[in-house]
Amino acid sequence: MESLEIRRKPFGKDFPINFHRDFVFLNLQPTASMYHQLLIKAFEKAKQEIRTQADTPAAEHLSDFIQEDSRQPYGERSLRTRYNQAREGTPFDLRNYVVESLAHFLGYDNFEAFLKEHPQEKGRNRKISFYRKYSKGYIGLAMMGVFLVVVVLVMQYINQTRWMVWNEDHYIETKFDEKQLQDGVLKLYKEDRIQNFRKIQPDCNTTYRNPDGTARVWYGKNKAGQLEYFSSLGQHPETGKTLKELSKYMFDKYVCPDPNN
Length: 261
Known about the structure:
The protein is α+β, with helices and mostly antiparallel strands.
């Protein structure tokens, strides 16, 4: 009640403080909820594109797109976490390049264009309350029936999608396997991963930088904590963590250490 009484006072010395407080509240809240809408719509489109209802492959699909679109990594685990927060209505923040790439993924020039076409919807809470209200009634049963029909249709077409798995030091094409998909082992087929992504063993003769200074070798730790090296940027096949560029420091220390030191 105190804050409402303060707003009724004429503009005076208290105006800058109250204005700043109300400005932050009114402007940050819509942005947070629009992140929810942006991420949910991006996951919906990703699932349609790769014909799956599972969150993990959809997150991997979005992570790869963000990497290609922004040239900056953003892991699928972070995307899945934010996606769950969006569905729960929990506030969170996203990096600017992630927001812009998700907008690009949905077909917009930028996030501002997405906002113009999707004005602030305070109905996010209404959506949640709607499901809570009707989840035990006939509408809930009807929605479940629709969901089952969709699942059946997805399973009919899922074998038409190409898949790949990691095989020792490279990816190979394979058939769909539901358990492998749930375990995060099965990946959506990508020609670039098949052709160019390899686990390698660099040595002192390895050229780990291009003439322009860009990386040629990337590294990451496996589940046992051991360093492994790869021929292309991406995610570690076992851990899912984004690989790092092999720096001169790492090359000198782990690949080609000075025997005199």
